[in-house]
Protein backbone atom coordinates (compact mmCIF):
# COMPACT_ATOMS: atom_id res chain seq x y z
CA UNK A 1 0.00 0.00 0.00
CA UNK A 2 2.78 2.46 0.89
CA UNK A 3 5.06 1.30 -1.86
CA UNK A 4 2.72 1.89 -4.77
CA UNK A 5 -0.85 2.93 -4.06
CA UNK A 6 -1.48 5.62 -6.61
CA UNK A 7 -2.02 5.08 -9.47
CA UNK A 8 -3.07 1.51 -8.74
CA UNK A 9 -1.63 -0.78 -11.42
CA UNK A 10 -1.97 -4.22 -9.85
CA UNK A 11 -5.55 -4.98 -10.86
CA UNK A 12 -8.74 -5.72 -8.98
CA UNK A 13 -7.69 -9.06 -7.45
CA UNK A 14 -4.63 -7.58 -5.74
CA UNK A 15 -6.70 -4.56 -4.74
CA UNK A 16 -9.18 -6.77 -2.89
CA UNK A 17 -6.38 -8.93 -1.49
CA UNK A 18 -4.59 -5.85 -0.15
CA UNK A 19 -7.77 -4.72 1.62
CA UNK A 20 -8.31 -8.19 3.07
CA UNK A 21 -4.74 -8.54 4.36
CA UNK A 22 -4.66 -5.02 5.77
CA UNK A 23 -7.93 -5.35 7.68
CA UNK A 24 -7.16 -8.90 8.85
CA UNK A 25 -3.77 -7.83 10.22
CA UNK A 26 -5.33 -4.89 12.07
CA UNK A 27 -8.08 -7.00 13.59
CA UNK A 28 -5.82 -9.87 14.63
CA UNK A 29 -3.44 -7.39 16.29
CA UNK A 30 -6.23 -5.93 18.41
CA UNK A 31 -7.66 -9.34 19.29
CA UNK A 32 -4.20 -10.62 20.24
CA UNK A 33 -3.74 -7.73 22.69
CA UNK A 34 -7.15 -8.55 24.19
CA UNK A 35 -6.20 -12.25 24.43
CA UNK A 36 -2.89 -11.45 26.16
CA UNK A 37 -4.64 -9.08 28.55
CA UNK A 38 -7.19 -11.78 29.34
CA UNK A 39 -4.38 -14.27 29.98
CA UNK A 40 -2.71 -11.79 32.36
CA UNK A 41 -6.01 -11.20 34.13
CA UNK A 42 -6.55 -14.94 34.61
CA UNK A 43 -2.94 -15.40 35.77
CA UNK A 44 -3.27 -12.65 38.39
CA UNK A 45 -6.88 -13.02 39.52
CA UNK A 46 -7.43 -16.77 38.99
CA UNK A 47 -3.97 -18.41 38.97
CA UNK A 48 -5.18 -21.93 39.78
CA UNK A 49 -7.64 -21.85 36.90
CA UNK A 50 -4.91 -20.76 34.48
CA UNK A 51 -2.67 -23.61 35.56
CA UNK A 52 -5.46 -26.10 34.90
CA UNK A 53 -6.20 -24.80 31.38
CA UNK A 54 -2.75 -23.75 30.15
CA UNK A 55 -0.87 -25.51 27.41
CA UNK A 56 0.58 -25.17 23.93
CA UNK A 57 -2.46 -26.78 22.26
CA UNK A 58 -4.78 -24.20 23.83
CA UNK A 59 -2.53 -21.30 22.76
CA UNK A 60 -2.41 -22.57 19.17
CA UNK A 61 -6.19 -22.97 19.14
CA UNK A 62 -6.69 -19.40 20.43
CA UNK A 63 -4.28 -17.90 17.88
CA UNK A 64 -5.94 -19.85 15.06
CA UNK A 65 -9.38 -18.73 16.19
CA UNK A 66 -8.24 -15.09 16.30
CA UNK A 67 -6.97 -15.30 12.72
CA UNK A 68 -10.16 -16.98 11.47
CA UNK A 69 -12.42 -14.41 13.19
CA UNK A 70 -10.27 -11.56 11.85
CA UNK A 71 -10.32 -12.96 8.32
CA UNK A 72 -14.09 -13.39 8.35
CA UNK A 73 -14.64 -9.89 9.74
CA UNK A 74 -12.31 -8.39 7.10
CA UNK A 75 -14.11 -10.02 4.16
CA UNK A 76 -16.75 -7.26 3.77
CA UNK A 77 -13.96 -4.71 3.31
CA UNK A 78 -12.36 -6.81 0.58
CA UNK A 79 -15.69 -7.36 -1.16
CA UNK A 80 -16.49 -3.62 -1.16
CA UNK A 81 -13.02 -2.42 -2.19
CA UNK A 82 -12.85 -1.40 -5.84
CA UNK A 83 -10.58 0.42 -8.22
CA UNK A 84 -11.98 3.90 -8.73
CA UNK A 85 -11.09 6.50 -11.31
CA UNK A 86 -11.49 10.22 -11.76
CA UNK A 87 -13.80 11.21 -14.59
CA UNK A 88 -12.64 14.15 -16.66
CA UNK A 89 -14.38 16.31 -17.56
CA UNK A 90 -16.77 15.93 -14.65
CA UNK A 91 -20.12 14.21 -15.41
CA UNK A 92 -18.73 12.36 -18.42
CA UNK A 93 -17.74 8.77 -19.02
CA UNK A 94 -14.11 9.65 -19.84
CA UNK A 95 -11.91 8.07 -17.17
CA UNK A 96 -8.37 9.16 -16.41
CA UNK A 97 -6.35 5.90 -16.30
CA UNK A 98 -3.58 7.50 -14.24
CA UNK A 99 -6.10 8.24 -11.48
CA UNK A 100 -6.72 4.57 -10.58
CA UNK A 101 -7.06 4.19 -6.82
CA UNK A 102 -7.71 1.04 -4.77
CA UNK A 103 -10.16 1.98 -2.02
CA UNK A 104 -13.53 1.37 -0.47
CA UNK A 105 -15.25 4.50 -1.71
CA UNK A 106 -18.81 3.59 -0.81
CA UNK A 107 -20.16 1.38 1.94
CA UNK A 108 -22.84 -1.26 1.42
CA UNK A 109 -26.39 -0.04 1.93
CA UNK A 110 -27.89 -0.46 5.41
CA UNK A 111 -24.57 -1.67 6.88
CA UNK A 112 -22.33 0.96 8.49
CA UNK A 113 -19.19 -1.10 7.94
CA UNK A 114 -16.63 1.43 9.12
CA UNK A 115 -18.63 2.30 12.24
CA UNK A 116 -19.14 -1.37 13.12
CA UNK A 117 -15.43 -2.01 12.67
CA UNK A 118 -14.59 0.91 14.96
CA UNK A 119 -16.98 -0.28 17.67
CA UNK A 120 -16.06 -3.98 17.48
CA UNK A 121 -12.30 -3.65 17.01
CA UNK A 122 -11.48 -0.43 18.87
CA UNK A 123 -14.06 0.69 21.41
CA UNK A 124 -15.10 -2.72 22.79
CA UNK A 125 -11.52 -4.03 23.09
CA UNK A 126 -10.49 -0.80 24.81
CA UNK A 127 -13.32 -1.20 27.34
CA UNK A 128 -12.52 -4.90 27.91
CA UNK A 129 -8.81 -4.16 28.44
CA UNK A 130 -9.62 -1.26 30.79
CA UNK A 131 -11.90 -3.47 32.89
CA UNK A 132 -9.35 -6.31 32.97
CA UNK A 133 -6.47 -4.05 34.05
CA UNK A 134 -8.65 -2.30 36.62
CA UNK A 135 -9.60 -5.66 38.12
CA UNK A 136 -5.95 -6.76 38.11
CA UNK A 137 -4.93 -3.60 39.92
CA UNK A 138 -7.71 -4.03 42.48
CA UNK A 139 -6.76 -7.68 43.05
CA UNK A 140 -3.10 -6.79 43.56
CA UNK A 141 -3.98 -3.91 45.88
CA UNK A 142 -6.26 -6.17 47.92
CA UNK A 143 -3.57 -8.82 48.13
CA UNK A 144 -1.09 -6.27 49.45
CA UNK A 145 -3.66 -5.10 52.03
CA UNK A 146 -4.12 -8.67 53.25
CA UNK A 147 -7.73 -9.00 52.05
CA UNK A 148 -6.91 -11.90 49.74
CA UNK A 149 -4.34 -13.60 51.92
CA UNK A 150 -1.31 -11.66 50.70
CA UNK A 151 -0.84 -9.90 54.04
CA UNK A 152 -0.98 -13.07 56.15
CA UNK A 153 2.76 -13.61 56.00
CA UNK A 154 4.29 -14.03 59.39
CA UNK A 155 7.76 -12.94 60.06
CA UNK A 156 9.68 -9.75 59.76
CA UNK A 157 8.09 -6.43 58.97
CA UNK A 158 10.62 -6.02 56.15
CA UNK A 159 9.09 -8.94 54.26
CA UNK A 160 5.68 -7.26 54.39
CA UNK A 161 7.13 -3.93 53.19
CA UNK A 162 8.96 -5.62 50.31
CA UNK A 163 5.74 -7.37 49.29
CA UNK A 164 3.83 -4.07 49.37
CA UNK A 165 6.55 -2.31 47.36
CA UNK A 166 6.55 -5.15 44.84
CA UNK A 167 2.77 -4.99 44.48
CA UNK A 168 2.88 -1.21 44.04
CA UNK A 169 5.50 -1.64 41.29
CA UNK A 170 3.29 -4.19 39.57
CA UNK A 171 0.30 -1.83 39.72
CA UNK A 172 2.43 0.99 38.28
CA UNK A 173 3.65 -1.33 35.52
CA UNK A 174 0.06 -2.36 34.68
CA UNK A 175 -0.99 1.30 34.50
CA UNK A 176 1.94 2.18 32.23
CA UNK A 177 1.20 -0.79 30.00
CA UNK A 178 -2.53 0.00 29.80
CA UNK A 179 -2.01 3.68 29.07
CA UNK A 180 0.62 2.72 26.50
CA UNK A 181 -2.05 0.78 24.60
CA UNK A 182 -4.39 3.76 24.39
TrEMBL record:
The keyword Plastid does not apply. It is a multi-pass membrane protein. It is found in: Membrane. GO terms for molecular function: neuropeptide receptor activity. Residues 1-182 form the G-protein coupled receptors family 1 profile domain. SUPFAM superfamilies: Family A G protein-coupled receptor-like (SSF81321). Gene3D superfamilies: Rhodopsin 7-helix transmembrane proteins. One of its GO terms (cellular component) is plasma membrane. Keywords: G-protein coupled receptor, Membrane, Receptor, Transducer, Transmembrane, Transmembrane helix. Coiled coil: none annotated. The chain crosses the membrane at residues 59-79, 119-141. Belongs to the G-protein coupled receptor 1 family. This is G-protein coupled receptors family 1 profile domain-containing protein. The lineage of its organism: Eukaryota, Metazoa, Ecdysozoa, Arthropoda, Hexapoda.
Amino acid sequence: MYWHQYPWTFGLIFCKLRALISETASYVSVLTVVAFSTERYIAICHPLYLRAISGLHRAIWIIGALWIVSLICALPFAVNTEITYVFYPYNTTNIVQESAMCAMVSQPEHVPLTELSTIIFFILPMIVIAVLYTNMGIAIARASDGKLGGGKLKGSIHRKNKKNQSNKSIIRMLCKYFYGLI
